[in-house]
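Field guide to reading this record: the first block holds the primary sequence, the second block holds the structure written as discrete tokens, and the final block holds curator observations. Each block starts with its own label. This record concerns Putative amino acid permease, catalogued under organism Actinacidiphila reveromycinica.

BLOCK 1 — SEQUENCE
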Amino acid sequence: MPDPTLTGRTRRTEHAPPVALDDDATLHAMGYPRKLTRRFRAFDNFAISFTIINIISGIFSAFGMGMAGGGPRILIFGWIGVSVMVLFIGAAMGEIASAYPTSGALYFSAGKLARRHSGAWSWYTGWLNFIGQVAGTAATDYAAATFIQSYIAMQWDYTPTLRKTVLITAAVLLVHALLNTYTVRLVAVINRISVWWLIVGLLVIVISLVSVPSHHQHAGYAFHYANTTGFHSAVYAGLLGLLVTSWTFTGFDGSFHMSEETVQATVNAPKGIVRAIGYSALTGLILMVALVYSIRDYAAEVSSAAPPVQILLDALGQGLSKAILVIIIGSMLFCGLANMTSNTRMIFAFSRDGAMPGSRLWHSVSPRTRTPVKAVWLAAASSLVLVLPGWWSHTAFSAVVSVNVVGLFLSYGIPIFLRLRLKDEFQAGPWHLGRWSRPVGVVAVLWIITSNVLFMLPQATPITASTFNYAPIALAVVLVIATLWWFATARKSFHGPVSYGGPDEVAAMDLV
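BLOCK 2 — STRUCTURE
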């Protein structure tokens, strides 16, 4: 059972609900001094997850996968079903975020929730979250590079290639790293702008798709099924189509990771998670329906280099399609920036507890910006490594997406599973699920297991060097390294989240 002196909580009873403590007092009670500036309010915290989920980026970047694997039936009804499952995960995570509002987020809570072997649970949760977050940044910026090339091809005589995609991705990663290094206050402002960019952009896209085309598909088109994956099993193809929604709904742990920079984090962080998922589910469904009913030539569009771009061109013409592409590219760039910001905070916290090579370097904080600048560049370099196979692989994007989803959702599932094992011993925060905590957690864990199996399976046939889903290999490499390192030295030196002392001691260490 977590030590109440470390969590800063008292046992919840019917007559004495938990009360949110002062932010610094809560952090000090968990054994950490304040090193980061609390510049995020409720809307800012929500904005980070809403921007990372980013329905415009997620739907447009993976829409072709859904068209091939199941078509409109899976795209629309799969969106509804998976959104509900993800909401269960978000609610279960929110309850944990309220109890442990730290930048360490998932790996910290795993260490605190484990009855035994807390160091090992925390270690593996942290490494899964790290590789998942790195892959999220990589996949988003890779998708942005793809759409940037589509725009350039509309404007000039330009032929997109795999190598050009990797080079543009590297340039985007560089820009995002520079922004996180030198303009930290601007990043917070950009995250607020991104929410309105998404909302206004969604309205522009949906209104255009509804009002401009001369005709749309018939009402029953939502039930149309299509399978162009090459796999003969309709069920298997349909399951692959669910990956569109699963990929879109990643990164909402961003609100959790920003806890140490959020005002009233014990309440605002969990609310940020749940609100980001809920609003994304509703607005995403509207966008999905608008796109599906704007399809004209299914065979030609699904076989094009960028199916959603071809749908826009066929439905809206080149002029308006260019304007909408700007909206899509902007959304992807906002998403990639927010991804890197969240990833950096995870690296900072994990290194703070001595769990990464060169930990002292990665958790150092810039005296000027009060942010972990060196961790920013580690995040950028790691993301670039993951997209390098795109130099020759046609399935690089789907593989990086798989690494993103499997890594993140496993790291989501571990603390939820450990919380279930604690039952009534769990020390709840001010935001909790009450009697619904256990059923919500069970559903969340079951869906995480199911979706992760799907992402590890082959996604294209025939399986060749250029179509092979290298996600299992990438994840295996990370887990093997983490395991070898764990048994070689880490199990002796890393015992889970580190406490820097009692509340009064760490309060004296505050740097801001």
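BLOCK 3 — OBSERVATIONS
The mean pLDDT is 84.
The chain has one domain: 4-493.
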